[in-house]
Amino acid sequence: xxxxxxxxxxxxxxxxxxxxxxxxxxxxxxxxxxxxxxxxxxxxxxxxxxxxxxxxxxxxxxxxxxxxxxxxxxxxxxxxxxxxxxxxxxxxxxxxxxxxxxxxxxxxxxxxxxxxxxxxxxxxxxxxxxxxxxxxxxxxxxxxxxxxxxxxxxxxxxxxxxxxxxxxxxxxxxxxxxxxxxxxxxxxxxxxxxxxxxxxxxxxxxxxxxxxxxxxxxxxxxxxxxxxxxxxxxxxxxxxxxxxxxxxxxxxxxxxxxxxxxxxxxxxxxxxxxxxxxxxxxxxxxx
Length: 287
Ligand code: NAP
Prior knowledge:
The chain is of the alpha/beta class. It has helices at residues 30-45, 61-70, 91-105, 123-135, 149-158, 182-188, 210-221, 226-234, 249-258, 265-274, and strands at 3-9, 12-17, 50-52, 79-84, 110-115, 139-145, 164-170, 192-196, 240-242. The chain is built from ten helices and nine strands. Strand 7 (164-170), helix 6 and strand 8 (192-196) form a beta-alpha-beta unit. The structure holds NADP nicotinamide-adenine-dinucleotide phosphate. Residues 22-25, 52, 116, 145-146, 168, 196-199, 227, 243-248, 251, 254-255, 287 line the site of NADP nicotinamide-adenine-dinucleotide phosphate (NAP).
């Protein structure tokens, strides 16, 4: 699996596999739960060690499942990311929320900890808590989610020792609004863009539509599937990561293998034509 530079500050650089695993809406009981757990473990074995979660997912249930699944695995082989809910993001609330996440995950540190989206607590308080969590060794790096350029500028200005490692945002073929301003800002400031909901809200287009046929032809050329081509497109540049959620083993296998697909310039252009980014800047879309 290809890796990308997730965090860089002076000599300190963290490289992370470009395709990770999302865990929102993971089934939390029944037979689907057993497969979801097996899938998560299979994903780790196949190199998707970047695991994305949040205290919000299943009210901590997703973190519990991850904690059970990673028991006994070498901690340093994993890259675990969680998020504090804006309603908990006061200074003390952020510290406490992180400690609760660590407990549920059965680990003593997170590789990255994010503010899930901007809420009503003052940003300086949240960012100071995140910096203090780094100092205490409870998190390796800090980041944000659903932040547009102006929010990132404000968040960065709150920091005194650390830098923002990543911004987790909605990014898929239907929603490429981040390409207008956010992407270049993040590149310029070495902030990783971690794209969520990579398969979009709608079904991927069928092969009998023009855009579906284009994806299908590229997939055929790579002996791959359409979802794999979508993922390869979303991580086509340095600094871009994707975190598909898959509760089924067949999906996990596909997603992991997508991390090795490199699209040609002409294939990228073909996809670009079928699924164009907006021409002008829009407010950041998120869910
Ligand atoms: P997603 O990953 O785009 O889609 C998940 C759906 O795609 C599931 O139904 C899954 O099926 C299916 N799928 C996975 N791999 C597939 C494949 N190879 N072929 C066909 N279908 C496949 O959507 P998402 O869960 O919204 O986003 C991913 C992750 O991003 C979340 O789980 C969460 O960790 C994160 N996220 C963050 C935010 C935020 O505000 N920061 C918001 C939303 C999501 P099965 O599960 O049945 O395998």
